[in-house]
Amino acid sequence: MEIGLIITSLLLIVFALLAVIDGFYLHIFKYRLHNYPESKFEHLTHTIRAVLFPAIVYFLFLKQNCNISFYIGLILVIIDLIVLAIDAYSEKDSRAFMGGLPRWEYILHLFVNGLHFSSIAVFLAIKLDLTNNGVEIISDLSGFKNFEIFRLVIINLIPGAILLALIHILVAIKRIAKYWDLWRVKINCC
Asked: Looking at CB atoms within 10 Å, which of 29, 50, 123, 168 has the fewest?
């Protein structure tokens, strides 16, 4: 189980790095999906997922000794899966203004979502214990070796995830998006 905490931590770190590239750099900074009528729905699904992620991290991964939080986290994961399916279905039409989704970005999406859900799957393998009586939830993982490393990763993910969610929300507001775009055009690096 201890190695599972390290694996989950590594998966979450790589996910977070790739999610910033995809969710912030590509979607908001480079392509400015929030500005195109055909991609507004895609931006909405990304915003919902961006809001769900810190909540999933908090309720599923961080909150210990509370089975209700664990169940809330699972419900949020299911909602996230549903929103992901809707996002993937609508993405082809959403990117018509740029000739469709670039193949390399499609591959990036596969990695980002694969890492995200792999981290959840590995964590569930740690958190759930099959017994003769059925499935039991291990309420407290703090006694496991490497828990403090895992906890440190989780605690440090939350502020960045909240910031990314807030940016998604703010650029969806026309008045704020206009200021963002004015500021954005002053940067010529990327």
From this structure: 29
Is the whole-model pTM more than 0.70?
yes
Quote the radius of gyration of the chain (alpha carbons, Å).
18
Measure CA 124 to chain center.
Answer: 17
CA trace torsion 69, 142, 111, 113 (10° rounding): 0
Q: Is 134 helix (H, G, I), strand (E, B) or coil?
A: strand
Structure letter (DSSP) for residue 142: T
State the sign of the Cα–Cα–Cα–Cα dihedral 151, 122, 46, 79: negative
Please name which of 41, 28, 14 lies closest in space to residue 113, comparing C-alpha atoms. Answer: 14
Give the three-state DSSP class for 65.
coil
Phi/psi for 96 (5° steps) reads -60, -35
- Cβ of 152: how many Cβ atoms within 10 Å? 11
| Cα–Cα distance list, 19 to 61, 126, 141, 148 (Å) | 18, 24, 27, 24
Query: How far apart are alpha carbons 14 and 121 in whole angstroms?
Result: 15
Beta bridge partners of 135: 130
pLDDT digits (tens, 9 = 90+) for 50-98: 999 999 999 999 998 889 999 999 999 999 999 999 999 888 788 888 8
